[in-house]
Amino acid sequence: MNEVPRNRRLLEFGTTVFSSMSALARETGSIDLGQGLPDTGGPPLLLEAAAAAVRAGRGGQYPPDIGVPELRGAVARHRERHHGIRYDPEEEVLVTAGATEAIAAAMLGLLNAGDEVVMLEPYYDSYAACIALAGAKRVPVTMRPPDFRLDVPALRRAVTPRTRLLLINSPHNPTGAVLSRAELGEIAAIAREHDLVVVTDEVYEHLLHDDAEHVPLATLPGMRERTVSICSAGKTFSVTGWRIGWVFAEPGLLGAVRAAKQFLTFVAPGPFQHALADVLDVLPDSYYRTLRTDLQRKRDLLSAGLEAAGLTVYRPRGAYFVTADIGARDGMAFCRELPAACGVVAIPSAVFYDDKAAGRSLVRFAFCKRDEVLTAAVDRLRSLRHRVRAGG
């Protein structure tokens, strides 16, 4: 074979940065603050429910492609309990193999070749690949430090007659920005004015800090019927390997997403669906309050360590990543050298940008780790101070 056939739409995408940096952490024995990979198990009640489901043979065979009815009902009640918006579990809820599959299914199910997707930059790298697979074009709108606020005029300018949908992520990965009600109102106004669908990635809905509030876009006037909302269990319950996500949308939009989803993984893991269904209704609100308190403490621990290392830190209001500015240095080179320099792995934020100059000096660190791991990382990072000062 002279040349391996490749899908041209994927030629710009190599191995995902998360895989390559995690491999580097393993090879060098470094502390991995790159991938958003919690190092603790989920709540014991949830883990016990999963074990019980496996032992009882619940979900050992193919569950319904739309998701087991018990979980669809549980996530619908969860949505209403926490955000006051009601969905019919029979017609408006779809269970997916994680939020990443939900994003892929939404792009493949809702887009046609030549359509444009306006989205926030920096962005989760899967967005770009999924848009490309659909034959569509991404149109990023850059969020800039220190606050990474939404640039509403730029968002308006980005919309053209070819725009099909808006892709919105809040709480935001990688910056940790949380869109305000006023910013969401601007997004809603643009969507209504141009008759656009909005896909919202809300996987960090419960991971909030300080006084931040997560407002689902679908709760705003006129938005329920044009919003596809994506959530997941992985981030909220520290079970990223379970690959259980879900989608909320009115029946027409959900049907389009489901039409694509059925030809991807077909179904999500059955026993884990049953475990979540058993626990979502009974897990107390104190779980979410404790999660918020613990993550905010971890954020502050890592942020203080990065500041002590001489970096400029932009403390997030949501999610579990801290963005730091390394000044005149190139973030990609900095992250390649970091394991040898101090035994820590991070992610160069430039990989989340089309505008590489905007992300050149930014680096993302994850703080979804045990306190002792973060403390060890902070101790190692202190050795960077003289390098940062010297620009070397």
User: Per CATH, which architecture of the largest domain?
Assistant: 3-Layer(aba) Sandwich
- Summing up helix and strand content along with how strands pair, one would put the structural category as alpha/beta
Count of β-strands? 13
Number of helices: 15
How much strand content do the residues show? Answer: 5-15%
Low-pLDDT ranges: none
Order of helices and strands: HEHHEHEHEHEHEEHEHHHEEHEEHEHH
Strand arrangement across the biggest beta sheet: 2-8-7-6-5-3-4
CATH topology of the largest domain: Aspartate Aminotransferase, domain 2
The helix content is 40-55%
CATH homologous superfamily designation of the largest domain: Type I PLP-dependent aspartate aminotransferase-like (Major domain)
Q: For the record, what CATH class of the largest domain applies?
A: Alpha Beta
Question: What do the pLDDT scores average to?
Answer: 95
State the end-to-end distance: 45 Å
Whole-number tally of structural domains: 2
Radius of gyration: 21 Å
Largest sheet: 7 strands, mixed
The backbone outline, from C-alpha atoms, is globular
Features:
392 residues; Aspartate Aminotransferase, domain 1; globular; Aspartate Aminotransferase, domain 2; seven-stranded mixed beta sheet
Which helices and strands, and how do they pair?
Blueprint: H1 17-28, E1 31-32, H2 44-55, H3 69-83, E2 93-96, H4 98-110, E3 116-121, H5 125-133, E4 137-142, H6 152-158, E5 163-169, H7 181-194, E6 197-201, E7 227-232, H8 234-237, E8 245-248, H9 251-261, H10 270-280, H11 285-308, E9 312-314, E10 321-325, H12 331-342, E11 344-345, E12 347-348, H13 356-359, E13 362-366, H14 371-381, H15 385-390
Parallel strand pairs: 1-11, 3-4, 3-5, 5-6, 6-7
Antiparallel strand pairs: 2-8, 7-8, 9-10, 10-13, 12-13
